[in-house]
Specification:
Blueprint: H1 3-18, H2 24-30, H3 42-49, E1 53-56, E2 59-62, H4 64-87, H5 92-102, H6 108-117, E3 146-147, E4 156-162, H7 169-173, E5 183-188, E6 193-197, E7 200-204, H8 206-209, E8 212-216
Antiparallel strand pairs: 1-2, 3-8, 4-5, 4-8, 5-6, 6-7
Helix pairs in contact: 1-2, 1-4, 4-5
Length: about 220
């Protein structure tokens, strides 16, 4: 099973349980088809084989391992919702689509960076609990995260996360190596932002550079 599909199913099992539903039909009905193409009841048998869920007739429950995986996906999604709401002030109809996209690319380190940047929020914009991370239990976290556009010429940085107002932009940047965890060097700021990522040199418009958040090295 593709990792994205697995994550989407685990996330929906978690969120449906919050609504008091644990039947397979409801879980499938609420699973995002875009990220879980071809979803079917046989997928639950695969999750059970991998030790992530337990099955009882048509009821589906998370195992301890599944709970950890599901909570992490939900944490990424709800932090992404807060990011797009609080930092970028996106319209409500855009937030869900963008959050679904970002939740599948954030690393654990990048997720903690987002959490720290937002002040370790307890609730998503819809009032649902955001699963806590290790960073939430520390008294002080040093995660200096800034937009790429604020780097000085020649500065090196590690990409923390991508947060775009434009649907699909994050997916288009990933194949070029602009992804959480990648290191880059800013070569020039004008007339375009020119960066080096690995062996690749790219020119980015200022609007894109403002949506790539990095940790200076």
């Amino acid at each position: 099973m593709r990792p994205q599909k697995l994550e989407e199913l685990l996330e929906t099992i978690f969120t449906e349980r919050e609504c008091g539903r644990d039947d397979a039909a409801s879980i499938l009905a609420h699973t995002n088809e875009r990220h879980a193409e071809g979803k079917c009841t046989a997928d639950f048998a695969v999750l059970a084989f991998e030790g992530l869920v337990s099955l009882s007739l048509d009821r589906v429950s998370l195992t301890q391992a599944g709970e950890v995986r599901a909570a992490f996906v939900v944490r990424r999604h709800r932090l992404a919702e807060r990011l797009y709401t609080d930092l970028l002030d996106l319209a409500p109809d855009q937030i869900e689509q963008q959050a679904c996209e970002l939740e599948h690319v954030l690393s654990a380190e990048a997720t903690d960076s987002v959490c720290a940047l937002l002040g370790h929020p307890a609730l998503c914009p819809h009032g649902k609990k955001i699963p806590r991370g290790a960073c939430c239990d520390l008294s002080e976290i040093a995660h200096p995260v800034v937009p790429l556009s604020q780097l000085a010429d020649g500065a090196r940085a590690r990409i923390a996360f991508l947060a775009s107002r434009t649907p699909g932009r994050v997916s288009r940047l990933l194949p070029f190596g602009i992804a959480p965890g990648s290191e880059l060097r800013l070569r020039q700021r004008a007339p375009a932002f020119v960066i080096e990522v690995g062996e690749t040199t790219l020119a980015l418009e200022a609007s894109v550079a403002r949506e790539v958040f990095v940790q200076p090295l």
